Amino acid sequence: MMNHDDQESQTPADATLPVLSSESGTSNDTLVSRRWLLLKASIALNGVVGLSLAVPILRYLLSPVKKDSYYKRWISLGSLDQFPTGQTRLAFFKNPFTRSWDGQTDNVACYVRRMTATTFQVFAINCAHLGCPVRWFPESHLFMCPCHGGVYYANGARAAGPPPRGLFTYDWKIEEETLHINAGQMPTLSNSAELFMPTIGPDGDSKCLG
Amino acid sequence: MPRMKQNGKQVYDWFQHRLQLEGPVKEAALHPVPRRTASWWYVFGSAAFTLFFFQVLTGILLAMVYVPSAGQAWHSLNVLNHQVALGWYIRALHGWGSNFMIAIVIIHMTQVFLFGAYKYPRELTWCVGVFLLLMTLGMAFTGQVLRFDQDAYWGLGIGAAIMGRVPFIGGDLVHLLLGGPIIAGATLSRFFDLHVFIIPGLLGLFALVHVWMVLKLGINEWPMPGRLVRRSSYLKEYQELTHKDGIPFIPGALWRDLVFSAGIIAAVAVCAYIFGPIGPNGQPNPAIIQTVPKPDFFFLWIYAILAFLPPAMETPFLLIAPPIAIAALLSVPFFAGEGEKSWHRRPVAILTVSFLAVGWGTLTQLGMTTPWSPHMNAWSSDAIPVSYLRNATPLQRQGAVIFQDKQCRNCHSVGGMGGKRGPALDDVATRLTPNQLRYKVVTGGGNMPAYGKNLTAPEVQALVSFLETLHPANEAPARDAAEKTIKASEAAAAAEMHGKAPSMPNAGP
Fold first, then answer.
1. Which residues of A are less than 8 Å from B372 in CB distance?
2. Is residue B429 part of a domain?
3. I need a labelling partner for B128 at 20 to 30 A (CA). Which of A16, A192, A205, B317 fits?
């Protein structure tokens, strides 16, 4: 405390209400120890009440933490006719886990690459680097990311730039002439695939499992 | 008149009798401060505090219209911008207030660091200040999210991608951050919670503790070279300083604080008027992928770092560097709690600040120009200069078409237009021989994809023949140094063979 010296100003009001004066309430030792015990007990009581409330509060807070399978569903991307063989097309679906106030945010885009009549690759729109939306260039058969310049080959393998792996892919299946994918959450490095050494070169396979 | 004065005094006494604030307020107002601290260098802290209240005020005003719902937020911001009377101006004040607040907090921190203010006994004041900086940045990031547009959406995506890199619990952290499996309504609601309740509540509390300590411990004295801080004697020396050469805080020092704060708020008001509100840009619809997301100004340096780190270093850097940086800031007063305060005798401090400032400035500049990002539309929008194709052969012209059509232009500029990801190709022929060009196109390497599978052999041939023409008129294209020798020996061999087999085909390159 260094700044006290100029305080000629002990306000008169201080003297008028001695309610909080520290000199009141001293007593003998036994009384004091009993009061302390009561205080400790009351603190413990509050602790118990607090802890028992913390459990539901924590469960409420952690409610979004679910297994990936909880959020994922098989969703139709539409008729197979929309996806010509040998081409990669942008497709959209409504995220299966949604709330009425989500607005446009549950419109999810993905890329469908049809290799043959019955074989597909479905890529997430998110760059494996930091999740930005990659763009497909059919002329050069490359995906390019606008954020940090990640580039991928047509098969999703990493071609250049900072991504640590190829594009994320969704599991797919064909049912009644429609293409279905197993989707429902934003793909990140922790939920969609293990890290693997990127295969550099157009022949590399992206090796990602949905 | 005297009667009114008497009434006023009575009212004052009535409140004073009950609140009993006169003593503490007088103590705070009249406490002596070292004469030299009544300086323009000491005004930044109070300006940051003023800006905080300014942000609270403008934030409350915005919350009267803003709807924190993923389906409505973007529309409500546009209503604020275009339909509510002066809604655009309140948004602009809040946005520019935010920019100024970060700037002032960082300037304040730099100033107290250079003035050695973190040394004994003000270590805790510094540490609380570090958290105030972090919370200010937290407010900036969450505020950017509430401006629920495309940048906010993909910025959240970047946040989720970073969270997803945490080992073991990454997936759970992503769910916690987003409030669900994707960026959606729950995400905006929790960032609203952070921006409006949690962080500002903590920020206000920490700011009060910060100011409390400044009042109790006294403002840091003007550092003099050679006047060392020692735990044993500092308090006594400070007391002598404030009493022998001190002035009361009010009015001696406060008037500068007030002038500067007023100036800063006026600057915010002027910037808001001239530059207007920040965003929102496109709708937060992830189906619109024709977007180039970019963080706000004060996070551009992080954006730049993420472009330059090698892939193998990225996850460790993202997860380890922030805790180390925070720990380093917090530990400053504990390994340098005593000794010299003056920047005249602290070269390491000066070097650190200069290094950080230059590094931050460079990275921010790079973040503004993003030389690592392909220009997504360059291939179809930036024409090849006519002069480059004058007298070009059909094959070379075909090569130029392929150069555009295969998106080479997205990363390589020609004639000053196009991407900056790869080198400009205006004089590429002076650097690479035709064979090297062909090899580079086919196999790629570094940050260039291999085009071997994506181009036919005739396309490669045409492209290379165009690239060969890209050299200044007065500078010869690169040639293989061994070419002459090889040609000569080939010619000699051919001449030798000539007699025996005149129809020997020339070996191709």
1. 148-149, 161
2. yes
3. B317
| CATH number of domain containing B169 | 1.20.810.10
DSSP classification of residue B197: I
CB of A88 closer than 8 Å to CB of A122: no
State residue B247 phi and psi, 5-degree precision: -135, 155
Q: Which of residues 392-421 of B touch A (CB under 8 A)?
A: 405-408, 410-411, 421
The residues in B 260-279 lying below 8 A from A, measured between CB atoms, are none
Distance CA B462, CA B484 (A): 24
Nearest Cα of chain B lies from the Cα of A149 at a distance, in angstroms, of 5
pTM of this prediction? 0.87
Last residue of a domain, one of B346, B369, B392: B369
Q: Residue B228 domain-assigned?
A: yes
- Based on the domain organization, do B273 and B157 belong to the same domain? yes
Q: Do A62 and B176 touch (CB under 8 A)?
A: yes
Domain count, chain B: 2
> Higher pLDDT residue, A68 or B144?
B144
Q: Which chain A residue shows the shortest CA-CA distance from B16? A: A13
Contacts of A131 in chain B (CB under 8 A): 154, 157-158, 160-161
CA distance A193 to B207: 43
Question: pLDDT tens digit string along B293-341?
Answer: 888 899 999 999 988 888 888 889 989 999 999 999 999 999 999 999 9
pLDDT in the model for residue A84: 95
> Which residues of A are less than 8 Å from B379 in CB distance?
137, 139
What residues of chain A lie within 8 A of the CB of B447, using their CB? 149, 160-161
CATH number, position B424: 1.10.760.10
Q: Is the pLDDT of residue A204 over 80?
A: no
Lay out the sheet containing A120-124: strands in order across. Answer: A73-79, A178-183, A169-175, A120-124, A107-114, A88-94
Integer Cα distance of B242 and B236 in angstroms: 10
Provide the residue count of chain A.
210
User: How does pLDDT run across B409-451, given as a tens digit for each residue?
Assistant: 999 999 999 999 999 999 999 999 999 999 999 998 878 999 9
Q: Of the residues B345, B369, B393, which one is the last residue of a structural domain?
A: B369
Looking at residue B42, the DSSP 8-state letter turns out to be: G
CA distance A5 to chain B (A): 8
Residues B303 and B403 in one domain: no
One domain for residues B385 and B283: no
Nearest Cα neighbor of B82 from B288, B283, B272, B279 is: B279
Residue B248 with chain A: CB contacts under 8 Å: 6
**Cβ atoms of A116 and A85 closer than 8 Å:** yes
Could you tell me which of B329, B269, B255, B297 has the C-alpha nearest to residue B51?
A: B269
Q: Is residue B22 part of a domain?
A: no
A59 C-beta neighbours (distance < 10 Å), count: 9
What is the dihedral sign for C-alpha B403, B409, B414, B420?
negative
A62, closest residue in chain B (CA to CA): B176
Q: Is B357 in the same domain as B418? A: no
Chain-centroid distance of CA A160 in Å reads: 26
Window 301-320 of B: residues touching A by CB (8 A cutoff) are 303, 306-307, 309-312, 314-315
Q: How far apart are CA B235 and CA B241, in angstroms?
A: 10
Question: DSSP assignment, residue B478?
Answer: P
Please tell me which of the candidates B174, B184, B285 has its beta carbon nearest to residue A188: B174
Please tell me whether residues B300 and B391 are part of one structural domain: no
Residue range of the domain that includes B315: 28-369
Q: Could you tell me the two tokens for A124?
A: 């997430």
For A135-164, write each residue's pLDDT tens digit. 999 999 999 999 998 999 999 999 988 898
Q: Same domain for B194 and B228?
A: yes
Put the strands of the sheet holding A158-160 in their side by side order: A135-137, A142-144, A151-153, A158-160
B144 touches chain A (CB under 8 A): no
Q: Is position B233 within any domain? A: yes
